[in-house]
What we know:
alpha/beta; 9-stranded mixed sheet; 10 helices
Amino acid sequence: xxxxxxxxxxxxxxxxxxxxxxxxxxxxxxxxxxxxxxxxxxxxxxxxxxxxxxxxxxxxxxxxxxxxxxxxxxxxxxxxxxxxxxxxxxxxxxxxxxxxxxxxxxxxxxxxxxxxxxxxxxxxxxxxxxxxxxxxxxxxxxxxxxxxxxxxxxxxxxxxxxxxxxxxxxxxxxxxxxxxxxxxxxxxxxxxxxxxxxxxxxxxxxxxxxxxxxxxxxxxxxxxxxxxxxxxxxxxxxxxxxxxxxxxxxxx
Length: 252
C-alpha cells in the first residue's frame, strides 16, 4: 500500500540516490544479526534503493525491503533473497508474528513513529529486534573538509527539512519506547573521487530545495572550490560518516 501523504524528498533523484549513496560497513550487518533472535526474515523499512537491504541478504533468509516511493523501489538493486515492495513503514502488509528484525536506515525521521512502532510490535516475533540507523554529516580528509562543513552548516543550512536535526543528533531525541540494546557507534568509510562526492551531494534534499529557491545549483560553486584544491579529479580521497544505531527489543 502506498500513500501520497508521506514527505517525498527523494523520488525525483532515485537514479542518483542509487548511484551515489554510501554503502554500510559489514560490521553493522554483523551487529544487526547478533541482536536478532533468528535469521528467517528481516523487514527493511524506508529502504530507498536497497543500500542496506542487499547487505542484510548475506545473513538473512529473506529480506523484505519496503519504501513509500515506488520510484525508489524501481531503481533498487536486485539481489537474491531481497523482495522489494512499495509500502509504508506504518502499514507493512505482513502477518503478525512474522519478522525477526526490523531495520530503518536513514529514514526513521520521516516516519509517523507512533503508527510505525505499533505496526512493528504487531509483526514482531518473540524477542524480535528493531534498529534505527542513521549516518551524520560527512567529513573529507584533510583541509578540503572545511569547504564541506561551510556548505552544510552555512550555505544550505536554511534549506534542510526540520526533521534533519534528528540525523545530526544521531536519533537521540526520537521517541524510542523499547528496552534498548547497546550497539556501539560505527563509521562509514568510502574512497571517492571528486565526481562521486559531487554526485552524492546532489542527492541531498536541501540541495534540491535550494536549487528550486535560488534558480541555480549551489553544489556547482562548491564543486569549483573543491576542484581547485583536489588535484587530479580521479584521485580518491577518504570520506567518513559517523554511524549510530538505536536498537531495542520489540517483544519480551
